[in-house]
Hints:
Layout: E1 19-23, H1 28-39, E2 43-48, H2 51-64, E3 68-73, H3 79-93, E4 98-101, H4 116-141, E5 147-152, H5 165-185, E6 190-197, H6 203-209, H7 215-223, H8 234-244, E7 256-259
Parallel strand pairs: 1-2, 1-4, 2-3, 4-5, 5-6, 6-7
Helix pairs in contact: 1-8, 3-4, 4-5
Amino acid sequence: MITKKKTKQEGTGRLAGRVAWISGATSGIGEAAAELLAREGAKVVLVGRRLELGQSIADRINGTSPGAALALACDVSLESDVKRSIAATVKSFGRLDILVNNAGMVEIGDLHTYTEAQWDRVMGVNVKSMFFAFKHAFPHLRKVKRGYVVNVGSISSFVGQARTPVYTTTKHAILGLTRSIALDYAAHGVRCNCVCPGITDTPMLWEHLNARPDPQAALAERLRRVPMGVPLSPLDVAKSILYFSCEDSAGVTGTSLTIDCGYLTAAEWQCTGPTFFQENV
């Protein structure tokens, strides 16, 4: 029996011919979004501080998906870096259709213990970066027939979270910024929406949990408040990013989509388990 070598197919998928800039793309939700959008035919630019890691992800995408990938080093809290990365995106791929503002960080602590530098750093990465990205992407987004902006918020865009005051502040701000962009730029063919994940199995989650004496017990405690009883995978969130990055979501702008396994459906909840969602955990 002769088996044919699997080859990369060009020009297929919902995003064929589209170009996406994705921040925070070297791990977690951003990495999953880059891989999924490329599988749908997009040319994706992976933006992050860890160039070597980004390059390895780009190499994997280039070897397996119908899309293409480029990794760029970028500190999204610096306007000069963001401007340079967007210019490099357009120079490499000729256009820009999709802006995914996913980069984020967290600082664990009580508000009165924060330094000004800690506060400014989280605000810079989580919120100011979105201003920089849209500012420099808009001249290109307005040139294409449809432009898509997807901001990554959190369930902390709606409720508080213990010992993360600046993180929670930024996530509330992202929801307001999403609505403002949607309102002000609809006339230019740009739609802007926000995805708001709940507990997601990412490095950032474990950074938060590892601040607790028993991280696994802390996770189990949090999941007891989730009706489905399981954390999200990065791919779960990436699928919602894809939805907002194409005409599957035509007519939708200025809104948020909560992906949280039911976390916010009740003020109080204890998952007694097991649930059918936990069968493969």
